[in-house]
Design goal:
Blueprint: E1 17-22, H1 24-33, E2 41-46, E3 52-58, H2 60-71, H3 74-79, H4 81-84, E4 90-91, H5 94-102
Parallel strand pairs: 1-4
Antiparallel strand pairs: 1-3, 2-3
């Protein structure tokens, strides 16, 4: 008899690949608050004309991103992340991201 554990405890309150947009001050504040999260993650920001974009990657998507850095130049990944990632990001409002980070409910 072979027993396999199929349930994992890696759940985030937002998801594993998140895209949020807002003004530069909000994005900078969110990036500063992400330093308190202890689980492995990466956050990339892109400057836009109207709003900046912040990507937060964790979990299996984090592992896939690391694998992509071996195949694709990091500059290309940073400038056009959605093109190379096999998963579509979940979009969240910057206000909800900041609220969860303030309440320390951002669990990776």
């Amino acid at each position: 008899m072979k027993i396999q554990k199929t349930q994992t405890n890696y759940h985030t309150s937002f998801g594993k690949f998140i895209k949020t947009s807002g003004n530069r001050e909000e994005i900078a504040k969110a990036k500063d608050m992400l330093w308190t999260v202890e689980e492995p993650h990466i956050s990339l920001s892109q400057k836009g004309l109207k709003n900046d974009v912040l990507y937060i990657i964790s979990g299996k998507e984090y592992d896939k991103f690391i694998d992509l850095t071996k195949e694709v130049y990091f500059r290309d990944l940073r400038t056009d992340l959605e093109k190379f990632m096999p998963f579509k990001p979940k979009t969240k409002k910057i206000s909800s991201v900041l609220k969860k980070l303030k309440e320390n409910k951002f669990k990776l």
